[in-house]
Amino acid sequence: xxxxxxxxxxxxxxxxxxxxxxxxxxxxxxxxxxxxxxxxxxxxxxxxxxxxxxxxxxxxxxxxxxxxxxxxxxxxxxxxxxxxxxxxxxxxxxxxxxxxxxxxxxxxxxxxxxxxxxxxxxxxxxxxxxxxxxxxxxxxxxxxxxxxxxxxxxxxxxxxxxxxxxxxxxxxxxxxxxxxxxxxxxxxxxxxxxxxxxxxxxxxxxxxxxxxxxxxxxxxxxxxxx
Length: 226
What we know:
It contains 7 helices and 7 strands; from the N terminus they run E-H-E-E-H-E-H-E-H-H-H-H-E-E. It is an alpha/beta fold. The radius of gyration is 16 Å and the shape is globular.
């Protein structure tokens, strides 16, 4: 059984080389790394899950292609990790984890969420989960998806479910509304909820919440088991 799970967002700015001298994601990175460091303490292995266009397993040693987000370095010799998985692997490295890592992408439409949750629930003790996902991207006139007033109650509901360990609420998020609000973490939220329903949630904390660019970012920690 997965012992614990941490949810983090995956904005490109968490890749430090993209932040410039000001580092606009410094506070988020600090809180995310702290949560991940606590997650992996005493762990035997880590599974990293995030959204992508296609669901598939990836080699965790594959680099993320940061050139897509504004840098001019050399192209990786093979297709780069999806952003969500690349940010997850980077957070693990910054938290000091050097153990086994498995990386899995789930499609944005959520196909395979329950199957993966069932597989994760059967993993050996000592396995932990790092799941990546952003909230709505429509929290202001300058947000990537512009303003949609429905984003505010939607994100409030996600934050409450994360803080309360409400697995049912996350698992049954309104997928159609999430798509309209451009929620890049909907699949990840549903996975965390599905796992919590199977394993039980013994404690839950919301470690960070912000939306400086009109995109909701959450860092949350769940300890699992009944």
